C-alpha cells in the first residue's frame, strides 16, 4: 500500500487550493479612507423637509425684493423646494474633500472654503446636547457677467431666512430676502 494513493492526493490537492486562496486574501492591501466626512447638509434638510411636510405648520412668510416686502400666512406645499438652496449647499462631494478647513468643538462645527472658486464659502452648524440648534451658510458665485451671494440661516422648528444679492453686469443689482416663521 502506497502513501500516495488516490484519497490522499485529493485531500492534499484540496488543502493546497484552500491555502492558496487564503494566501491571496492576505496579499490585498487594506484600503482606508482618510478624508473627512462633512456634516450631511443634504441629509439633514431632506429629513427636516419630510418632517415639516408631515407636520404641515402654518408659516408666516415674508418675501422682499429690493426693499418691497409682502407677508402672508400659508402652508408650504413642498418643503424640499422651499429649502432647496440649503439642500444644494451640500459639500459632501469627493472632489471637495480637501477643499475646506474644519473647526470643531462640542457646540460648533465650522467649514471654510480654501479655494475661492468653491460656491459654498462657509458653513456653521451650532449644536447643543447633540442636536442642531442653527445652521448658517454663505454661498458665492462670481464670473464675468454676474456676482451672486446667498446667506442662508436656519433654526430648526422655528425660522429660516434667505438673503440673496445679485449683481448682473449691464442690468444692475437685485436684493431678495425670504423669511419664514413657523407658527405651528
Provide structural commentary.
The chain has helices at residues 6-27, 41-55, 79-82, 84-87; strands spanning 58-65, 68-75, 100-104, 108-113, 120-128, 131-142, 146-155, 159-168, 172-182. It is an alpha+beta fold and 184 residues long. It has one domain. It has a nine-stranded antiparallel β-sheet, with no helix packed on it. The radius of gyration is 27 Å and the shape is elongated.
Order of strands in the sheet with most strands:
2-1-9-8-7-6-5-4-3
Report the span from N to C terminus. 90 Å
Number of helices: 4
| Spatial extent as radius of gyration | 27 Å
The main β sheet shows up as: 9 strands, antiparallel
Instruction: Calculate the mean pLDDT score and round it.
Output: 87
User: What's the number of domains?
Assistant: 1
Question: What percentage of the residues does DSSP assign to strands (E)?
Answer: 35-45%
Helix content: 10-25%
The rough form would be described as elongated
SSE arrangement, N to C: HHEEHHEEEEEEE
Which structural class should the secondary elements be placed in?
alpha+beta
Low-confidence sequence ranges = none
For the secondary structure, the number of strands is: 9
Could you list some keywords that capture this structure?
alpha+beta, 4 helices, 184 residues, elongated, 9 strands
Describe the secondary structure blueprint for this structure.
Layout: H1 6-27, H2 41-55, E1 58-65, E2 68-75, H3 79-82, H4 84-87, E3 100-104, E4 108-113, E5 120-128, E6 131-142, E7 146-155, E8 159-168, E9 172-182
Antiparallel strand pairs: 1-2, 1-9, 3-4, 4-5, 5-6, 6-7, 7-8, 8-9
Amino acid at each position: 500500500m502506497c502513501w500516495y494513493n488516490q484519497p490522499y492526493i485529493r485531500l492534499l490537492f484540496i488543502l493546497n487550493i484552500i491555502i492558496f486562496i487564503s494566501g491571496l486574501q492576505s496579499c490585498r492591501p487594506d484600503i482606508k479612507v482618510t478624508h473627512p466626512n462633512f456634516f450631511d447638509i443634504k441629509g439633514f434638510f431632506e429629513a427636516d423637509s419630510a418632517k415639516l411636510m408631515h407636520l404641515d405648520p402654518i408659516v408666516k412668510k415674508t418675501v422682499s425684493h429690493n426693499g418691497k416686502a409682502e407677508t402672508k400666512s400659508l402652508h408650504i406645499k413642498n418643503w424640499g423646494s422651499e429649502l432647496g438652496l440649503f439642500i444644494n449647499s451640500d459639500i459632501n462631494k469627493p472632489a471637495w474633500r480637501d477643499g475646506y478647513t474644519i473647526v470643531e468643538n462640542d457646540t460648533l462645527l465650522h467649514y471654510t472654503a480654501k479655494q475661492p472658486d468653491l460656491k459654498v464659502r462657509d458653513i456653521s452648524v451650532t449644536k447643543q446636547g447633540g442636536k442642531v440648534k442653527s445652521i448658517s451658510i454663505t454661498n458665492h458665485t462670481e464670473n464675468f457677467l454676474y456676482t451672486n451671494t446667498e446667506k442662508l440661516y436656519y433654526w430648526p422648528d422655528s425660522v429660516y431666512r434667505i438673503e440673496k444679492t445679485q449683481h448682473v453686469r449691464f442690468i444692475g443689482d437685485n436684493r431678495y430676502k425670504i423669511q419664514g416663521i413657523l407658527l405651528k
